[in-house]
Amino acid sequence: MATQHQLDPGLVHQEQRAAPPPMYRVVLLNDDYTPMEFVVDVLQQFFALGLEQATVVMLKVHNEGRGICGVYPRDIAATKVSQVGQYARQHQHPLQCIMEVNE
Ligand code: TYC
User: Fold this and answer.
1) Which residues contact 37 (CB under 8 A, 6 or more apart)?
2) Mutate to test the pocket of ligand 1, among 26, 27, 28, 30 (most ligand atoms within 8 A of CB)
3) Which end of the chain is less enclosed by CB atoms within 10 A, N or C?
């Protein structure tokens, strides 16, 4: 006869399972100096957004102070934050890009 364990180990032994690793939001912050076109370029280059969606996200950041570029595993989010920061500094823009855990 099948035990409960054999039928549904996920339910019986839920407490022994590792939680899935958290995901991280990559967030752009508004500032008064970075050109809008540069932000749209960043969103297209580093977050694979099309021109229209990149423009929507840029305007959201401009109007609301911040906006989500994407949600990724920790290492990928950290790489994007680093790449955007380096690209912005290269072009002498104060654009800030951060990551935060998505619960
Ligand atoms: N506020 C900037 C401007 O008026 C545009 C901008 C948008 C800057 C988004 C940063 O993350 C940003 N030129």
Assistant:
1) none
2) 30
3) N
Residue 57 CB less than 6 A away from ligand 1: no
Tell me the Cα Rg of the chain. 20
Pocket test for ligand 1, best of 26, 27, 33, 36 (most atoms within 8 A of CB): 36
pLDDT by position in tens, the chain (length 103): 334 444 444 445 567 899 999 999 999 999 999 999 999 999 999 999 999 999 999 999 999 999 999 999 999 999 999 999 999 999 999 999 999 999 8
